[in-house]
Amino acid sequence: MIIWICGLSGSGKTSIARAIQQFQADNGRKFLLVDGDEIRELFGESSKPDRFEISGRRRNAERIDKLVTWFNASGIDVVVSVLSIFPDLLLSHRECFDEYFEVSLVASLELLQKRDPKGLHAAALSSGGANMVGYGIEYKKPSRPDLVIDMDVDDSTPTEIAQKISELIEDKMNGLLTW
Asked: CA–CA separation, 5 vs 35, rounded Å?
Protein backbone atom coordinates (compact mmCIF):
# COMPACT_ATOMS: atom_id res chain seq x y z
CA MET A 1 0.00 0.00 0.00
CA ILE A 2 1.32 3.40 -1.00
CA ILE A 3 -0.22 6.59 0.41
CA TRP A 4 1.12 9.62 -1.44
CA ILE A 5 0.49 13.02 0.17
CA CYS A 6 1.36 16.07 -1.88
CA GLY A 7 0.97 19.81 -1.53
CA LEU A 8 2.94 23.00 -1.16
CA SER A 9 5.48 23.60 1.60
CA GLY A 10 3.69 24.19 4.88
CA SER A 11 0.42 22.55 3.82
CA GLY A 12 0.77 19.82 6.45
CA LYS A 13 2.08 16.89 4.40
CA THR A 14 4.63 15.63 6.91
CA SER A 15 2.39 16.17 9.95
CA ILE A 16 -0.42 14.22 8.31
CA ALA A 17 1.96 11.49 7.09
CA ARG A 18 3.35 11.05 10.62
CA ALA A 19 -0.20 10.91 11.99
CA ILE A 20 -1.13 8.23 9.41
CA GLN A 21 1.96 6.26 10.34
CA GLN A 22 0.96 6.45 14.04
CA PHE A 23 -2.72 5.67 13.38
CA GLN A 24 -1.78 2.63 11.33
CA ALA A 25 0.75 1.47 13.96
CA ASP A 26 -1.92 1.79 16.65
CA ASN A 27 -4.07 -0.50 14.50
CA GLY A 28 -1.36 -3.12 13.94
CA ARG A 29 -0.06 -2.03 10.54
CA LYS A 30 3.42 -0.61 9.95
CA PHE A 31 4.08 2.09 7.39
CA LEU A 32 7.46 3.46 6.43
CA LEU A 33 7.48 7.26 6.13
CA VAL A 34 9.33 8.70 3.13
CA ASP A 35 9.61 12.49 3.36
CA GLY A 36 11.06 14.57 0.53
CA ASP A 37 13.18 16.78 2.81
CA GLU A 38 14.52 13.79 4.74
CA ILE A 39 15.46 11.94 1.54
CA ARG A 40 17.25 15.05 0.22
CA GLU A 41 19.21 15.17 3.50
CA LEU A 42 19.86 11.42 3.59
CA PHE A 43 21.48 11.45 0.16
CA GLY A 44 23.62 14.52 0.87
CA GLU A 45 21.67 16.81 -1.42
CA SER A 46 20.94 19.50 1.19
CA SER A 47 24.14 21.40 0.49
CA LYS A 48 24.12 21.13 -3.31
CA PRO A 49 23.61 24.50 -4.99
CA ASP A 50 20.92 23.21 -7.37
CA ARG A 51 18.90 21.33 -4.72
CA PHE A 52 15.88 23.64 -5.12
CA GLU A 53 16.22 24.29 -8.82
CA ILE A 54 14.14 22.17 -11.20
CA SER A 55 17.09 19.83 -11.87
CA GLY A 56 17.70 19.15 -8.18
CA ARG A 57 14.01 18.78 -7.47
CA ARG A 58 13.66 16.33 -10.36
CA ARG A 59 16.65 14.29 -9.13
CA ASN A 60 15.11 14.04 -5.65
CA ALA A 61 11.66 13.18 -7.02
CA GLU A 62 13.05 10.38 -9.18
CA ARG A 63 15.09 9.06 -6.25
CA ILE A 64 11.96 9.01 -4.07
CA ASP A 65 10.00 7.20 -6.79
CA LYS A 66 12.71 4.55 -7.10
CA LEU A 67 12.89 4.05 -3.33
CA VAL A 68 9.13 3.75 -2.98
CA THR A 69 8.96 1.34 -5.92
CA TRP A 70 11.64 -0.80 -4.26
CA PHE A 71 9.88 -0.75 -0.88
CA ASN A 72 6.56 -1.61 -2.54
CA ALA A 73 8.13 -4.56 -4.40
CA SER A 74 9.46 -5.75 -1.04
CA GLY A 75 5.95 -5.68 0.46
CA ILE A 76 6.58 -2.61 2.61
CA ASP A 77 3.68 -0.20 3.11
CA VAL A 78 4.77 3.42 2.59
CA VAL A 79 3.33 6.84 3.32
CA VAL A 80 5.04 9.55 1.26
CA SER A 81 5.04 13.30 1.97
CA VAL A 82 6.47 15.30 -0.89
CA LEU A 83 5.69 18.34 -3.08
CA SER A 84 5.19 16.21 -6.22
CA ILE A 85 5.66 18.90 -8.86
CA PHE A 86 6.20 16.54 -11.78
CA PRO A 87 2.85 15.39 -13.24
CA ASP A 88 4.44 12.55 -15.25
CA LEU A 89 5.77 10.92 -12.08
CA LEU A 90 2.45 11.25 -10.26
CA LEU A 91 0.54 9.71 -13.16
CA SER A 92 2.99 6.80 -13.37
CA HIS A 93 2.17 5.79 -9.79
CA ARG A 94 -1.22 4.45 -10.81
CA GLU A 95 0.56 2.09 -13.21
CA CYS A 96 3.36 1.14 -10.80
CA PHE A 97 1.42 0.50 -7.60
CA ASP A 98 -1.56 -1.83 -7.24
CA GLU A 99 -2.69 -0.24 -3.99
CA TYR A 100 -2.15 3.50 -4.33
CA PHE A 101 -3.97 6.34 -2.61
CA GLU A 102 -3.13 9.93 -3.51
CA VAL A 103 -4.00 12.88 -1.29
CA SER A 104 -3.73 16.46 -2.50
CA LEU A 105 -3.50 19.14 0.18
CA VAL A 106 -4.67 22.45 -1.24
CA ALA A 107 -3.85 25.66 0.60
CA SER A 108 -3.75 29.32 -0.34
CA LEU A 109 -0.43 31.14 -0.25
CA GLU A 110 -1.95 33.38 2.42
CA LEU A 111 -2.51 30.39 4.73
CA LEU A 112 0.93 28.96 3.98
CA GLN A 113 2.57 32.31 4.70
CA LYS A 114 0.79 32.42 8.08
CA ARG A 115 1.85 28.88 8.98
CA ASP A 116 5.38 28.96 7.49
CA PRO A 117 6.98 26.52 10.00
CA LYS A 118 10.36 26.56 8.23
CA GLY A 119 10.40 30.23 7.23
CA LEU A 120 10.41 29.28 3.54
CA HIS A 121 7.55 31.53 2.50
CA ALA A 122 9.02 34.55 4.27
CA ALA A 123 12.33 33.89 2.53
CA ALA A 124 10.60 33.53 -0.84
CA LEU A 125 8.74 36.80 -0.36
CA SER A 126 11.91 38.67 0.52
CA SER A 127 14.05 37.17 -2.26
CA GLY A 128 11.55 36.89 -5.09
CA GLY A 129 11.25 33.11 -4.61
CA ALA A 130 12.84 32.06 -7.91
CA ASN A 131 13.35 28.46 -6.70
CA MET A 132 10.33 28.21 -4.40
CA VAL A 133 7.41 26.13 -5.61
CA GLY A 134 4.29 28.28 -5.66
CA TYR A 135 6.31 31.42 -6.35
CA GLY A 136 9.04 31.18 -9.01
CA ILE A 137 8.31 27.51 -9.79
CA GLU A 138 4.78 26.68 -10.83
CA TYR A 139 2.88 24.14 -8.74
CA LYS A 140 0.62 21.95 -10.84
CA LYS A 141 -2.02 20.33 -8.68
CA PRO A 142 -2.34 16.55 -9.09
CA SER A 143 -4.75 15.69 -11.89
CA ARG A 144 -6.22 12.51 -10.36
CA PRO A 145 -6.02 12.55 -6.56
CA ASP A 146 -8.19 10.15 -4.61
CA LEU A 147 -8.83 12.81 -2.00
CA VAL A 148 -8.49 16.61 -2.03
CA ILE A 149 -8.34 18.41 1.30
CA ASP A 150 -8.73 22.17 1.24
CA MET A 151 -6.63 23.25 4.19
CA ASP A 152 -8.17 26.75 4.12
CA VAL A 153 -11.59 25.21 4.85
CA ASP A 154 -10.81 22.00 6.75
CA ASP A 155 -9.70 22.81 10.27
CA SER A 156 -9.22 19.17 11.27
CA THR A 157 -6.07 18.19 13.12
CA PRO A 158 -3.46 16.02 11.39
CA THR A 159 -4.67 13.11 13.53
CA GLU A 160 -8.29 13.61 12.41
CA ILE A 161 -7.21 13.85 8.76
CA ALA A 162 -5.08 10.72 9.18
CA GLN A 163 -8.06 8.83 10.55
CA LYS A 164 -10.24 10.00 7.63
CA ILE A 165 -7.62 8.92 5.07
CA SER A 166 -7.11 5.58 6.83
CA GLU A 167 -10.86 4.92 6.86
CA LEU A 168 -11.13 5.70 3.13
CA ILE A 169 -8.25 3.33 2.40
CA GLU A 170 -9.87 0.64 4.52
CA ASP A 171 -13.10 1.09 2.55
CA LYS A 172 -11.15 0.67 -0.70
CA MET A 173 -9.41 -2.45 0.60
CA ASN A 174 -12.75 -3.91 1.67
CA GLY A 175 -14.21 -3.30 -1.80
CA LEU A 176 -16.53 -0.51 -0.72
CA LEU A 177 -14.63 1.87 -3.04
CA THR A 178 -12.76 0.97 -6.21
CA TRP A 179 -9.05 1.45 -6.77
From this structure: 10
Strands (E), the chain: 2-7, 32-35, 78-81, 100-106, 147-150
Q: What is the C-alpha to C-alpha distance for residues 122 and 25, in angstroms, rounded to an integer?
A: 35
Work out the angle between the directed axes of helices 87-96 and 54-73 (0-180°, nearest 10). 10
Query: CA 129, CA 121: separation in Å to the nearest integer?
Result: 8
CA 19 to chain centre: 13
| pLDDT digit string (tens) for the chain, length 179 residues | 999 999 999 999 999 999 999 999 999 999 999 999 999 999 988 888 888 899 999 999 999 999 999 999 999 999 999 999 999 999 999 999 989 999 999 999 899 889 878 877 787 778 877 777 888 888 989 999 999 999 999 989 999 999 999 999 988 878 776 65
| Cβ proximity of 62 and 85 under 8 Å | no
Q: What is the homologous superfamily of the domain 2-173 according to CATH?
A: P-loop containing nucleotide triphosphate hydrolases (3.40.50.300)
Residues 6+ apart with CB under 8 A from 138: 85
